[in-house]
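Homework help board

Subject: predicted structure for assignment chain

Our instructor gave us this sequence and asked us to write out the predicted structure in token form, then describe one feature. I got the tokens but I'm not sure how to describe them. Can anyone check?
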Amino acid sequence: MGAIVALDALLDQRRIWKGRHISTLRSGHPTGNAQLDAMLPSGGWPLAALSEILIQAEGTGELRLLWPMLARLTQAGEKVVLVAPPHVPFAPAWHAAGIDLRHLIIVNTQGTEALWAAEQCLRSGCCGAVLCWPQRANDRAMRRLQVAAESGQTLAFAYRPAEEAVNPSPAALRLLVESATNQLRVLKCRGGIAPVTPVPFAAWH
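My token output:
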């Protein structure tokens, strides 16, 4: 009985924290598409985390997914690093999208060296975002990228073939670009259930 009285006294004095349900904070970096932002638990690209963008074919506008975010970062003086891009970025298009090319860095390397370079850029904490195109990366390699993004508090993006959708991934967010139907589908989003409804991808072009 004495213990109950003592506990009541502590509660009355507000010396014990009483847990309450707190809704997930929507603290992500806006994607540039209000419909997609509304679907994601973080309200945008998850911060300090790896986002995976699965594509059925190159050159279907998949880079434009990130241009609004990259424009905001570079205009704020943040460095954006592209590690081993499959093609040389077309500078006029990136500039027209509002990206400050002075803060865009390209690292030309291949294979395991590309994964190592991406990991080091993420861990450095000196970049606003790091984009990479892992080739034949296993779960361990992808997990290292996720951990590096958390360690460096950096936005990480990995472009991978759509076939990887059948394999598990440590990424906080997984998106599938369906080029045939011009749709963007959320396969996985940390902190919530992936929505069934796709986002029209044509709106990004």
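Reply (TA_rk): Your tokens look well-formed. For the description, you could write something like this. Residues 30-204 form a domain with the Rossmann fold fold (CATH 3.40.50.300). That's the kind of observation they're looking for.
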